[in-house]
Amino acid sequence: MTIKKILIANRGEIACRVIRTAKKMGIATVAVYSDADRDALHVRQADEAVHIGPAPSSQSYIVIDKILDAIRQTGADAVHPGYGFLSENPAFAEALEKEGVTFVGPPVNAIQAMGDKITSKKLAAEAGVSTVPGHMGLIEDGDEAVRISASIGYPVMIKASAGGGGKGMRIAWDDAEAREGFQSSKNEAKSSFGDDRIFIEKFVTEPRHIEIQVLGDKHGNVLYLGERECSIQRRNQKVIEEAPSPFLDEATRRAMGEQAVALAKAVGYHSAGTVEFIVDGSRNFYFLEMNTRLQVEHPVTELVTGIDLVEQMIRVAAGEKLSFAQEDVKLNGWAVESRLYAEDPYRNFLPSIGRLTRYRPPAEGSQADGTVVRNDTGVFEGGEISMYYDPMIAKLCTWAPSRLEAVGAMSDALDDFEVEGIGHNLPFLSAVMEHPRFREGRLTTAFIAEEFPEGFSGVTPDADSARKLATIAAYLNQMLQERAVQITGTIGNHRRVVERDWVVTLAQRDYPLTVDMSADGTIARFADGATASITGGWVPGQSHARFHVDGVTLGVKVDLVGTAIRLRWRGIDVTARVRSPRVAELARLMPVKLPPDTSKMLLCPMPGVITSIVVKQGDTVEAGQTLASVEAMKMENVLKAERRGVVKHIAASAGQSLAVDELIMEFE
């Protein structure tokens, strides 16, 4: 069978990713789009595009009949579902089968079997796959939950059978927490999924999240393509992934791979799929779940194996046999993926929406140092980040022969990635790459919670980094000063002489120095006797440049803010002020301007839609009482009172769209 035209039942970066491989294979592509995505990148890149409804995905991307209508309109003979939306919906796969359209994915029975956590764990156990000790049957009430938890041994994990994304999940360390957690999980599962079935299993300590990529054809061949380390998570959502894992040895990798293949064969699996495991500190591994689709983080596997997973999915769907065997799969080098999200790390990672006023990814492909950069994205400069969908902007990947080289390449690539107009997590990703524990590979799923317990407030430069940035600030200032005196038409002997002595104030420290510029480069001579040499290619107007400070190359984002210079590098974000010694002396006498008092105001913490206001003017509210809720990017944020007070004025109403820090209500 030959596939001639693929409809991609998805949007954003994964739709663009599928289009790229389909074009390489000479297959025509069809995009579908909602009102919000009319000008989206995947629509521009596809050969055809069909409008399927309003912005909310519940009225467009996950409406099966609308996808079927688009198929009929365009004559597509195959559908790739990407991930999310309808990718693991057995009803969708069945509808395509009835329509006579090829589903670029696994068989319906495999989606059904693996889509239910209780069923999948039973099947895994029957297939000889290591599973977490637990109770897979239905649990009637809190008393039974306590008995089961005690028999398994605390701590235990209480989970919703139909759960996902961390919903319906609780950890219990004793009987009281087991009873309370059971009821909470049951309630949350019912409201989120319409299914309140709960199961309980052993909670694994020092857990790592490691998954095995499997690939099977319709002729009974199933292979594993190594593993991915996905332990760097926040709120049960992956942030950074890598392949291979820095923790696994060859024996554990083989055992996990063989068990993943056994499970896939047990359900007659074909196409690409992922078997997720939780691995403890002693390399004991336990089955978590199987994702019957292409994973978000599939590029790292592609980079270390050289296998295009989307191409293999299409070939398998067309009935082809796999062209390679297990012994042909080799892991070459190391790959790291960072998920770039439209979220503000300085505001507890709340979603951020708006226009991308600047979007300049690093150069892709092979680099001069032998590393590789890849950026999978679905956005473009000038495009809008919508409140209706997942906040992921791009997946930045790097490859290198070794792990530390790949991490170093990622740090460089993040430094070179320019994103403006919205809040984003680039500084946080840079901070993780530089973190000693991450660089050593000592990872668990609690890494972010343990290393950033108070959230992220930026990176404070150490002494060496601060001195490098002070050198760059002095260099930029000297260039601007020299440029300012080059105005034509001045009388030669009246031209202002540029000073060489300056004080750079940066990160609450002063750096008195002298700048000597010559044809050979620039030297900054610090008052404490240290020197730093610097060269660079920056010219006024550039927002990013590379500087060579004492032989070290730094990719720095540069903004001129009035007379100050804002510098961003490795997660550090500082504003430097370069002044003459006398002006610096006077500046120390200036009073510090205090921020405005907002203690009696409830401000919108993120751009979004007010879904409810549950108090009215004149109400007395208590600390912890719910006041309102805001929704953006599939995330609802409940706003609660910090202290007792009386509502003086309500400035917003349900259904209203607010910007960040816009007033919702005021208190007396």
Radius of gyration, in angstroms, nearest whole number: 28 Å
If strands are numbered along the chain, what order do they take across the biggest sheet? 14-13-10-11-12-15-23-21-20
What is the total tally of β strands? 40
CA-CA gap between termini: 72 Å
Portion in helices: 25-40%
Sheet with most strands: 9 strands, antiparallel
Helical stretch tally: 17
Question: Mean of residue pLDDT?
Answer: 93
Pick out the low-confidence regions.
Answer: none
Q: Which range does the strand content fall in?
A: 25-35%
Supply the helix-strand structural class: alpha+beta
- The rough form would be described as globular
Give the structure's gist in a few sentences.
Residues 2-453 form the Biotin carboxylation domain. This protein has 17 helices and 40 strands.
Topology summary:
Layout: E1 5-8, H1 12-24, E2 28-34, H2 41-45, E3 48-53, H3 64-74, E4 78-80, H4 90-99, E5 102-103, H5 108-115, H6 117-126, E6 134-135, H7 142-152, E7 156-160, E8 169-172, H8 175-193, E9 198-202, E10 208-216, E11 222-234, E12 237-243, H9 250-266, E13 271-279, E14 285-291, H10 298-305, H11 309-317, E15 334-341, E16 343-344, E17 350-351, E18 354-355, E19 358-360, E20 365-366, E21 372-377, E22 384-385, E23 392-400, H12 403-416, E24 418-420, H13 426-434, H14 436-440, H15 447-451, H16 463-484, E25 501-506, E26 509-518, E27 521-526, E28 531-536, E29 544-549, E30 552-561, E31 564-569, E32 572-579, H17 581-587, E33 601-603, E34 608-613, E35 620-621, E36 626-632, E37 635-640, E38 645-650, E39 657-658, E40 663-667
